Structure formats: structure tokens, C-alpha cells
Amino acid sequence: MEKEKVVAEEIKSVVREKYGQIAKAPERTSCCGMESAAPSSCCSGSGHEPGFSYSFIGEDYSQLPGYLADADLGLGCGLPTQLAQIKAGDTVVDLGSGAGNDAFVARSVVGDKGRVIGVDMTPEMIEKAQANNRNLGYANVEFRLGEIESLPVPDQTADVVVSNCVLNLVPDKRKAFQEISRILKPGGHFNVSDIVLNGTLPEKLRTEAELYVGCVAGAVQREEYLCFIREAGFTGVKVQKERRVEVPREVLLKYLSEPEIDELRQKNIGIYSVTVWGEKTVAAQK
Predict the structure, then answer these.
(1) Domains of the chain
(2) pTM attached to this predicted model
(3) What whole-number distance in Å separates Cα of residue 180 and Cα of residue 132?
(4) Distance of CA 10 to CAs 40, 41, 70, 152, 170, Å?
């Protein structure tokens, strides 16, 4: 158990450092988002050519109400707010809020009478999100420093919880979903986009991919992921959207042979972006 704690803290330290670097970068430099304006420091040391990017994982936010380009660091893998059924007046908590992208999209829906709370464990991200919010002037949007496994949010605060490509980075996913349940009001729900695996990736490909924080690091099998959710007591669990992340063949060829690539695709082994819904029953008190 002590060894597991040490490993978990090491993972968090690496993630915090990488995302801190991304937050301080002068340009949008995601390894995993829709585009990359410059080579990101989170890609360094992997042995590939400058500018190489896993740019095929994210989805385009730019057409959504509330979108703010300065808050979009390209770190997501879905559009959870789009399917979250957020209503005017709701309290929404965004886990791993980064520079505030999903929080501001949620704010466009909840309006002046609602409330949005972003939580992120990287101080530089919190600072960037707060600066963006000051420019927007939203009095009902706030960003708190904290970890998903121990959220700085009181019990039964949220009507809706959203998260975008963050829970895969959390070492204790079981605890993460228990925390989501704790902060949701009875009858509330969550909607999260995340990266999961189907089948076992070849070791050399997974090792390389895990160098890209926000991509595959920490991802678990799809059914294991859904099991964590059900174990936390959520009902109505469903995958609203599922998309195979099609890694370009030229990328795969850096690590795998042609026959190995064909076998992966024939067996549907690979990386998937999923958007998942779950509800906290009215009877549940925590």
C-alpha cells in the first residue's frame, strides 16, 4: 500500500509539472489536442522529431457558445458539456478545469443565476483560468486548487459534474468517482469525456504514448472504467459517445510492423475516446 502511494504521488508530480509547463507556454502547445502551434515541452525526450503531436485525439470546441480561445489549450478528448444537459441556474463542477475552457462553456448555459466551479491540481492552470475569468468578468465562476481524489467542494454541491480527458490521469479512479458522487446532489449527474483502452496495446507503443501526458497515460480498459463508475453507486450509466482514436499509420510504423498494425485494427485493439453519463439516485445521500 505504501508503495502504491509513492507511485501515485510520483504520477501526480509528473502530471503537475507537465501541465504547469503547458500553462506557462506562450502558445497553444498541447500534445493531445486539436492542433499544436509549437512543440510542447511535454513531448520532449521521446525521441521523435520536433513538432510531432498526437493531434488526432481532441475535438473542436470553437463553435460552442462560451468558447474562449485563450482558455482552449487543446487538452481535451471530447465535448462533455455538449451532452451534459446543463440547465440555466445549475451548479456545475468541472474537474481538471485547466485554463477554464469547459467552465466557460458551462457558464454560457447556467447563466447569471447558476454557478461554475473549476478544480485543478496545477497552480499555473488555476492562475491562467483566473486571469481568463477576470477578463470575462464572471462573478459566478471560480477556480479552486485541489485534487480530484479529495475535492475542495462540500457534499451535495453540484447539479452536474463534467470533466474532459482528466480522469485517466488520476491514479485512484475508484476514489475519483466516489468523490464525484459525494459532491453531487441526489438526482444530479455527471458527464465526462475520457480515454480508455480496448484490448492490450503492444508494450512499445504504449510506452511511447504514455510520454504524452493527457493522451494515454493512466488509461484503463473500457469495461474496468465503467466498473469503477457502477461501484461508486451511479445508475443509468451509459456511453453517450464513443470514438476510436485513429492513430495515423505513419505514426504506428515508428513502433510496429505492418502485420502488427493490421492485427491491431482487425481485432479493434486500440485507444478510444468515450463520453460517459451517470446519475446519483435521489435516495443517495452521499
Answers:
(1) 2-279 (3.40.50.150)
(2) 0.84
(3) 26
(4) 21, 18, 30, 21, 12
